[in-house]
Design brief:
By secondary structure, this protein is α/β, with parallel strands linked by helices. The protein has 21 helices and 20 strands. It is globular, with a radius of gyration of 24 Å.
Length: 559
Amino acid sequence: MTETAKSRTGGQILVDQLVAQGVHRVHCVPGESYLAALDALYDSGVEVTICRQEAGAAMMAGTVGRLTGRPGICFVTRGPGATNAAHGIHIAEHDSAPMILFVGQVERSMRGRGAFQEMDYRALFGSTTKWTTEINSAAEIPEVVQRAYHMAMQGRPGPVVISLPEDVLTEMATVPDAPRAEAVPIWPGLTQMADLQKRLWAAKNPLVIVGGPGWTEKASASVLRFAERFDLPVAAQFRRASALDGEHPNYCGEIGLGINPKLKARAENADLVLLIGGRMSEAASQSYTLFAIPEPRQALIHIHADPQEIGRNYAPTLGIIATSAAFAAALESVQPPTSIPWSAATREARADYIAWSDEAPRSPGPVQPAEIMLYLRRRAPRAIFATGAGNFALWVNRFLRFRAFEEQLGPTGGSMGFGLPAAIAAKQLYPARTVVAFSGDGDFLMNGQEFATAVQYGLAVVVVVMDNGQYGTIRMHQEREYPGRVVGTQLRNPDFAALARAYGGHGETVTTTAEFEPAFERALASGLPAILHVKIDPEAITPTTTLSAIRQAALAKRA
C-alpha cells in the first residue's frame, strides 16, 4: 500500500482509492446518503456524469466495464436508488461486465431498525453480484475497494456492490492507499493445447463459436488468424458478434435470437464445437436445444475463465480454464493438419451468411427496417451500435456487420431500456466515433429520460426509435399463444421527435424508407443528440414474419 500520512474522511479515502485505480469518470444520481463522497469528488479530477435515473446510471457504468475491461463506477443513494440500480446490475451480471456500485446506507447505529430507506443489500443483490458487502469503518475502505476490483475483473467478470453507511463516509481515519489492482491472466496448459490440436486434426465438420467477456482487438485478431490457418467457420454467440470482423471470409454469423436456420443446422450437425469464452446460455443455445444437456451430441471443447462454468450445463469433451485473451494468444502455437477436409463447408457457411445478411425480405408498410440497416452498414461501418431489447433488434443483429471490437452493445439478458444509456457511455469513451442507439417505442421510454443526460454533456448520439405502437415482442408471443386476444400490449406514444427538440436535441420523424437517409445525415450534421422517430407498421413484427401470419398459424393449429 502507498503510505498516506494525513487523516482523511471516509469519503475522501474512497475517492482517493478510485483515483489510484485509474478512474476518470463516475456515473451517479446524487443522494444525501453519500454527500461526503460527492464532496470528495469535487476537486479530485474525476469527472461526474449526473444521470436522471439510477437504472441508466448503472447501465452506463456496466457499459464502461464492458468496453474497457475495468470496472465502471456508479454511485446511487439508499433504498429506492438501490432498487432502481438493480436493473443495471442484472444486465452487468448477464453480460459478464465488471462494475462497482456504491450504495448509500443508513448510519451504523441505526442499522436493523428499519430506518429511513434502509435495506439489506446482501439480500437484494446476492443473486446478481459476484460480491455484495458493507464497509464498517473508514480504515477498511482501501482494502475493500481493491478487493472489489479484483472480484469484478477476475475469472468471469461481473458486478460488485459496496454499501456505504453514511457515518463511515464522515469518519476520520489515517490509512494508506491500496495499489492498483490488475486481473491475473489465466493461461491454458500445454497438454490441453496439444489435446485440442489432436481433436481438431481428427474432426470432419468443426465449428468455432466465440462469446463472453474479455475480448480485445489483439485477441480477436488471433482467433481470426487461427481460423484462417485452419480454414474454420467462425460464429459469434448472441450479441457478441463484434468480437470478430463481420467481413472476414471465415465469419458465418451470430448464434442467437433470429438465427439463420442454416447456421443453426450447421451447429447441430458439427462433429466438433470449439466454444471460446461463452456460456451458450438460453438465447444463444436456442432454449438449451442446440447442445444436449448434460452431454452434447457434438464433441465440445469449452474454454472459459470461470471453472464453475465448465460443465455447468454441458459436459465438455475437453474443458480449458483460460481467459479468452490468453487462450487466443495460445492458439498461435496450434498447427493445422496437412489436409483440411472442411474447407468447402467453410465457404458454404460464409455464403449462407452473406445471403442471410444481404437479402432483405419485404416488410409490411412504407418503412423497410432491413433497408435502413443496410444503409447504415454502408454509411457507418465503424460506428458503435447499441440496442435495447425487443423484436426491433432482430433487424440490427441480422443486417449490420460489425467490423471491430465492441461495436455491438446489447443486453444478453434481454433487458429493455439499455440502448440509450449504453450509447451515452460509449460516446463519452469514444467522442470521435459515430454512436447509434436503436430502441423500440416501449423500450425507449424505459430510460428515455437519459436523453437529457446526452444533451447536458453534449454527447451527439443518434437514437433510432422504431415505433410500432406496441410492446411488439410480447404481442408476438400473445398472438402465438392466445391468438386475437390482444390485451396489455398496445401503446399510445408521444411525438418522439418533438420530445428530442424539447430536451434541446435534434428530432425528426421518418414515415418512409426514403426519408431515413437524409434525416440521418441531418442528425449527424446537427452536432446534437438526436432522435429519429421511425414509424413502423405494427404487422412488421420480425424480419421473417408478420403478426397476421403468427395469428393465423396459431388459429390453424388450434382448429
